[in-house]
């Protein structure tokens, strides 16, 4: 394979943010597991992603270098038909509009996390449908199984990513391709009929979903939840990747238990989690992102786990 530095990109942008940006953690919120065919971290530390813009498929490489006196210099290189569109929105994708200036950590647990991760930002991924499909695939199943299904679907039905990727990468299918995917293809990927029907129904409304992108977050959530099979958890998973600082994935199998363990020393339910997070209302999602980054939301896994089920065998 061609060296990642050998092929000239179709578009390039250098961005000097006002403060530090942790590229790997910020873009990592968009990845789906360590073997995501659309998301890779190269040995040199650069983050590579494959996506589908309105203007076409794109692969982009994001790298950061410290510059004096500027706090950081971030370089975005892009290949493919969607390259110009991608570099134009790159600062938003990297959390350039994510303002933490009025965030009050309130307690030492959160203050320590903030001090340790000053470059953490919430990305603003403007392609809502592209974010929605993997969230649907993650409904009601362990993450490891959802990530495996995502890999199978992209490698089988996605488009090879343009450019000199460090490993073979794949662009997620278009809404038209998701709509045309036969039931057996979902089955082979390990996605049960309920989730595949939800994804196909969402693909049929992809244009309407995308029109929500600049609406207030409450309207985006309401629009998503009006779709069949989309509930509070799925909407919150999407909103957190649209940059919503208050998104909380109520209904998650582990989140409430992990938050309870971090704050109370014992697992909590959703009601208790929301009670704990209430002092940060409006920025509850920031607290969750910070504590995940700091490793504070990792309780001992001694109890029963979500049952794994291979839907390809059913």
UniProtKB/TrEMBL annotation:
InterPro entries documented for this protein: Alkylbase_DNA_Glycosylase/TA, DNA_glycosylase
Transmembrane segments: none
Gene3D superfamilies the UniProt entry points to: Hypothetical protein, domain 2 (1.10.340.30)
Region (Disordered): 1-20
Keywords recorded for this protein, A-Z: DNA damage, DNA repair
Keyword DNA repair among record annotations: yes
Name under which the protein is recorded: DNA-3-methyladenine glycosylase family protein
Organism expressing this protein natively: Mumia xiangluensis
